[in-house]
């Protein structure tokens, strides 16, 4: 099992959460809520209003999201879903645990007690330069006050 941190449309209550709970795509077990230890710019960009975490450490906000434990099948699905490695890159990042629900071995308990876990995160190093000038968000909600509703793939 691998740990994945999601900050956008895959979170609970968001448009693509259905994929996280579709066991035909693999297993994803909610572990808790967290935020990036380092600051990153989270922008909503493109004609489909997609949330992107730009891989510019030290700029932006501590991005809030959810921590999942996923099996290899789900990780492979997420790589394909996120267009990895072309649109997004999957990298390890340090995530500060805000609220932990995960149950597991001593390693997980210890990591949660220390307040920081390593998770795979889909961020991007390839983006138009003007995205750096977009508003930075600390958390994502498709129907947030930004007014930039995400366009589902099936509606594009």
From TrEMBL:
Residues 4-122 form the Gamma-glutamylcyclotransferase AIG2-like domain. It is an enzyme of class 4 (lyase). GO terms for molecular function: gamma-glutamylaminecyclotransferase activity; transferase activity. One of its GO terms (cellular component) is cytosol. The active site is at residue 82. It catalyses: epsilon-(gamma-L-glutamyl)-L-lysine = 5-oxo-L-proline + L-lysine. Its EC number is 4.3.2.8. It comes from the Eukaryota. Keywords: Lyase, Transferase. One of its GO terms (biological process) is modified amino acid catabolic process. Pfam families: GGACT. Catalyzes the formation of 5-oxo-L-proline from L-gamma-glutamyl-L-epsilon-lysine. Belongs to the gamma-glutamylcyclotransferase family. This is Gamma-glutamylaminecyclotransferase. It comes from Leptosomus discolor (Madagascar cuckoo roller). The lineage of its organism: Eukaryota, Metazoa, Chordata, Craniata, Vertebrata.
